[in-house]
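Still learning folds. Look over my entry:

…
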Amino acid sequence: MMKYRFKLTSVLLFLLAACAEPTEPEIPWVSLFDGETLNGWSQKGGTATYSIKDGSIVGTTVHDSPNSFMTTDKMYDDFILELEFKVDPSMNSGIQIRSNSFSYYRDGRVHGYQVEIDPSERAWSAGIYDEARRGWLNTLDGNLEAQQAFKQNEWNHYRIQAIGDTLQTWINGVPASYLIDDKTASGFIALQVHSIKKEQPPGTEIAWRNIKILTDSLQKYVKKSPLKPIITRNQLTIDEQKKGWQLLWDGKTTKGWRGARLDSFPQNGWEIENGELTVLASGGAESAAGGDIVTLKKYGDFELKVDFKLTPGANSGIKYYVDTDLNKGPGSSIGLEYQILDDRLHPDAKLGNHEGSRTLASLYDLIQASPQKPANPIGSWNTARILSQEGKVEHWLNGVKVLEYIRKSDEYRKLVAESKYETWRNFGEADTGHILLQDHGDRVSFKNIKIRPIVKNQ
């Protein structure tokens, strides 16, 4: 009898096990913090102190220090990150992701995406800020549930997904931010201790713990967000809108542009696709296909930003203070030019009436850009910035100033007299002019074309 009872019990246990819910496979998290040391981390920026207390990394504010960052030694591109933090109600802080520190960029200042920690009444914790670059990209305005999810004086939980150009955040399980932005694809993760004002007491703390990351097979573990994404491509950021920036190209149409020698946009030679404005390859000749395009409006003092991408051996340019009534013959319209060039493969890099003046980011044929300019590889996006105000002009490349000059000065006029522009009377001295994108017969793409007109005494 005992034998049969044993067999019956075994059968029942087997059936119960077969009917039980299958257990989920354990998620292969990798810890970024061992709970005891700062192995794998390094401090950058300021002099705030970081210590280990009760299995947490604790950052403490100090006076006379810029923002401080405890950064991972390893760089990350796509990942899912989870962690917990507890912050003093008087502090502002954040988690840096895909961030970098380069000696050429603002003396090594840490810059990149920051997932905000904001215990203030504003309550933008888990919003996305672009540290030391573009400012706010995704606030929590209108997302009351996420604003209310933050817990004062308690541990809070963040989930951060960075996959491709998509950044998403959750605070204590509540969807907070959904940003599509392709500015930076890789960088370190960092824990920020914000600088404090002189009147603020030092010694306030923020703590982080249970810092873990996934980097493989992310689609198996990705969480969907119900939020509507904020898309930055060919759009003004929050801070740009506040500062008076305007879109010069809407990312979809030819509105606001025409051919430099036409009343309308060229019928061929240019294409608009996937939010990119591209001049097509046509053999490398200057303005021999679709031709240059110019803004309908003219601009005086201005600040201009343009993202551009070169193909191998390509040549193009961004011209400003362009007068389309000059040079009705062959070649490009006349204006000051921010040179766009593959310095390694294009022969123009070795030409010019002033040494190096036809290289990338130079003032074409007049002034060479700094040889230490931070150019991204061919096929990658670069950002040109031109600032012209009260006669002073600056060329910037990827956030770094590479040259400056004074229009109409004796030094400037001497350079013109020694250049290919010597035959053009008062070259580059017009008070207003068009912005031009050049067709030089090579495939070059543009996006995020923005301008900030500068009003005198502004």
